[in-house]
Amino acid sequence: MIGFIRSTRSLEVSYLRECSCSECTRRLPTRPARRSGYRGGQGSRWGRGARAMVPLLQSLARAQLLCLCATAASTVTEISTDRTLQLVRRLQQSFDGEPRTSIRFGATFGPRTQAGTEAFDTHRGYTFWADFTNSQGGIAIRGTDGVVRQYAVELIARDDSCGSVCEHAAQLEVEANYRALIHDDGVDILLGTSTKKTAIMSRVADELSTINVACCSGPASFYSEGRAGLFGMHVPSDFYSRDYLKTMSISRNPATGRPVKNVAIAHNTRTTFTNATCSAAASFAREYGMQVVFNEPFDPAVMDAYAYRALMSRVKNAPSPAEVFIGCTLVDDSIAITRAAHDVGLLPQQLTSLFLTVGPTKPVFIETLGNLSEFVVAPSQWHHSMRYSDPYFGSSQEMNTLFKRLYGYDMDYVTASAV
User: Fold this and answer.
1) Are 215 and 36 in contact (CB under 8 A)?
2) What pLDDT does 315 receive?
3) d(CA 164, CA 352)
4) Which of 83, 212, 263, 288 could form a disulfide with 249 if both were Cys (CB 3.0 to 4.6 A apart)?
5) How far, in Å, CA of 111 to CA of 169, rounded?
6) Which of 61, 59, 45 is nearest to 129 (CA)?
7) How confident is the model at residue 288 (pLDDT cuts 50, 70, 90)?
8) For position 291, what pLDDT does the model report?
9) Which residues contact 125 (CB under 8 A, 6 or more apart)?
10) Residue 81 has what pLDDT?
11) Which residues contact 176 (CB under 8 A, 6 or more apart)?
């Protein structure tokens, strides 16, 4: 599922379509993730309710396909290998007859004090899911001996310094943490927290024969590198701009009355996610008969307000006037680019539409920019207003209601991906 959310104060959903891949429909839950957790407190905040046991290992054992689908013309990529099933079998066997009470998940988080960051949102999602799961009795696992036993969800969390910018030293820290989670902390499954860490996590997990789940990693390339134990939740971010550009290619510029043709692109060079997403955007634009009149990378580590204004001035002064701007960005970049687009007169005077990958769906985007945040388009993997049923929470709305009761705000797709 990919959604396009117009960034208004009410976060109105203006476009959303559901993946129609039959394999996804058959196997995957109607929310983006369910196989992760954080050890909840001893007292239940949820009440007992109906028992909700997540058959984790059975789900993994059945997961012989990874669904990569974004539109009705969905793609299913075969990733099943004998080694994948061997890893699942090995994990099952580790529970046979052992006197243990929990299944251990391990994750390494960057700075998680600021709301809206990946570390904060994924940690909160894991916490929320584990509290709910443990209040319902935990996870039921059928061992290879055929006996079903119940286990509490436990997370071993380590901290790293990999934030919006993840330098080489921070990457080494992330790798050391993942190795320690397996060797020292005895985790059963590794959990991802951001795209920046997925390549590191999957490499370590593959080396040490450990199943790992990427809650929040979009690029399809991660799943074509032969990592037998890597499972992902997101629709590939390569497709983020596809339906948007297809729609724009058959739209007319209200100022000229002519079809929209000219696309400007800028991307954050610091992540595989932003690089891959904008590379795909350029290809989709050409596929739909549009002209890429500007395509420039930027490094957020050396950017300030003046540099962003200079970037958007170059967009404005492109040889052919840009009508659509696509920014493959993270939260801080999105805020800076939107403000700069207004400062140099691209918005609302010149651009027909502004599309940003990450940022507009976050409350901090709207809180920081106020009215400048209006009519920015962004993709979303999930939204609480969609009427999807769910065997564990009941529906997307019910899950969001529980979350909002605890934390006072609506869940976004990053948090939902870690649930």
Assistant:
1) yes
2) 97
3) 29
4) 288
5) 15
6) 45
7) very high
8) 97
9) 33, 36, 215, 411, 414, 415, 416, 417, 418, 419
10) 58
11) none
| 376-380 and 324-328 beta bridge pairing | unpaired
Most confident residue range from 63-77, 159-173, 241-255, 303-317: 303-317
Contact 418, 33 (CB under 8 A): yes
CB-based contacts of 356, cutoff 8 Å, min separation 6: 326, 327, 329, 334, 337, 338, 376, 377, 378
Q: For residue 271, what are its two tokens?
A: 């992540």
Report d(CA 161, CA 171) in Å as an integer: 9
Whole-number average pLDDT of the chain: 79
| 366-387 tens-digit pLDDT | 999 999 999 899 998 888 888 8
Length of the chain: 419
Classify burial at 91, counting beta carbons within 10 Å of its beta carbon; exposed 0-12, middle 13-18, buried 19 or more.
buried
pLDDT band at 64 (very low <50, low <70, confident <90, very high): very low
